[in-house]
Specification:
mainly alpha, Growth Hormone, Chain: A, 2 domains
């Protein structure tokens, strides 16, 4: 087994604590996606309303905007492993309540909205604490590999969880999806207990949590590089990431696909994302910076624009795979750059501001849906691609000007 860790994409697995985190996360994340499938099916079964599905998605993602910065302050203020243990326990309790409500047939739509909002809050804190913990589990020069492996596991769980959920719904029942998800949390909780970490050192000086949050904002505002990285991620979240919610329109109205073809088409971004994560995990040495991040954003914009006007199933699959590849490439590099630059005592707060972009997905969906009603979905995708490309090009141009000015100032006699 030790020889296996010498393979370049898997090299960070030789660190026992990181391996334990990844193993538990694979099982727990698969359970999360299993519950997502069961929840969507349950909402549709109860309401037969696409609007109701959108409402649940809105309440699931909005906590990232509402409490994202608060979650970052918690991750910096307390022992991150303990924060993970508490958040995973709360998420398990939520799944048990879900299971009991469905099992006894008392579940109502408002219950689902409340449970989704609660889980959104828990997951917001959980994600920031988990990503912050990774920074202390592997050396700095192996962060890209570790984050690439994490992305691979996450995207694999996006395949494993929904597949298992569909089988369980079909052969056992929808309630048992929530029970299996509740049990899946035990894997990560147990692995967190197994980790051998140095004792948590409490900060010498204490300030209010609002002062903590303000300190994080001030640091990001004062760091041009991190501010630019987070800014481009917000543009992607608003005008790029919501594309996947509108793929069914292309599948039915443009490509004229049935359920099987639609399922294959929807797997394309996951395939590309997994490939990108494995490629990044295999890189021997890479200068993680704004230029590479913007290059992936430009690739994303081009791929999405090509998909928007494709009438071929094969080409559409390829373009969507490229979209997934570039999206995860931008995401992983941004995450790595922030973790390498931000100081440890501020890492949770800085990462929380980065992860708050997920909360913009719902707003972006509303924008894209409104635009599609006015100009059509193809031209909406093209316009959103143009906005992402302009943002990336503008950052690249501004970065090039700063580098040129710095070079001139270093010349003798300047």
């Amino acid at each position: 087994m030790q020889n296996l860790w010498t393979i370049r994409p898997l090299r960070t697995l030789r660190h026992r604590n990181f391996r334990l985190l990844l193993e538990g996360a694979l099982i727990s994340s698969s359970g999360d996606f299993m519950q997502n499938v069961a929840q969507s099916w349950l909402v549709w079964d109860l309401t037969r309303s696409p609007f109701a599905i959108g409402v649940v998605a809105f309440f699931d993602s909005m906590p990232r905007l509402l409490v994202g910065a608060f979650g970052g302050a918690i991750a910096d203020r307390f022992d991150r492993r303990r924060v993970l243990l508490i958040s995973q326990t709360l998420a398990m309790i939520q799944a048990v309540i879900y299971w009991l409500a469905v099992w006894f047939g008392v579940i109502a739509f408002w219950h689902i909205v409340v449970l989704s909002f609660f889980l959104g809050i828990v997951n917001t804190i959980n994600q920031t604490a988990r990503q912050s913990l990774v920074n202390s589990l592997v050396p700095k020069d192996e962060l890209l590999n570790a984050i690439g492996l994490q992305s691979s596991v996450f995207n694999f769980s996006k395949i494993l969880g929904p597949s298992a959920g569909g089988v369980i719904i079909g052969f056992i029942g929808i309630a048992d999806c929530f029970l299996v998800n509740a049990l899946s949390f035990l894997a990560l909780i147990y692995n967190l207990y197994l980790m051998e970490l140095p004792a948590w050192e409490k900060r010498a000086t204490e300030q209010s949590i609002w002062a903590d949050i303000k300190e994080g904002f001030n640091y990001v505002r004062g760091s041009r590089r991190i501010f630019n990285i987070i800014s481009i991620s917000y543009v992607m979240a608003m005008f790029g990431a919501p594309y996947n919610r509108f793929v069914p329109i292309f599948a039915t109205n443009v490509l004229h696909l049935g359920p099987t073809g639609f399922g294959i088409l929807m797997s394309a971004p996951g395939f590309g994302a997994t490939l990108a994560a494995l490629c990044l995990a295999s890189v021997r040495k890479m200068r993680v910076g704004l230029r590479w991040i913007c290059a992936f954003v430009l690739g994303f914009a081009l791929s999405l624009a090509l998909f928007a006007f494709s009438h071929s199933f094969v080409l559409s699959f390829v373009f969507l795979a490229m979209v997934g590849f570039c999206q995860i490439g931008e995401r992983a590099l941004s995450n790595t750059a922030i973790q390498m630059e931000a100081p440890s005592n501020l890492l949770g707060r800085v990462l929380s501001l980065f992860f708050m972009d997920r909360g913009l997905w719902s707003l972006g969906s509303v924008f894209m849906g409104t635009a599609a009603s006015a100009i059509g979905i193809s031209w909406t995708f093209a316009a959103c691609s143009g906005i992402c490309a302009l943002a990336a090009s503008g950052l690249l141009a501004a970065n090039a000007r700063r580098r040129a000015q710095a070079a001139i100032q270093q010349l003798p006699g300047s």
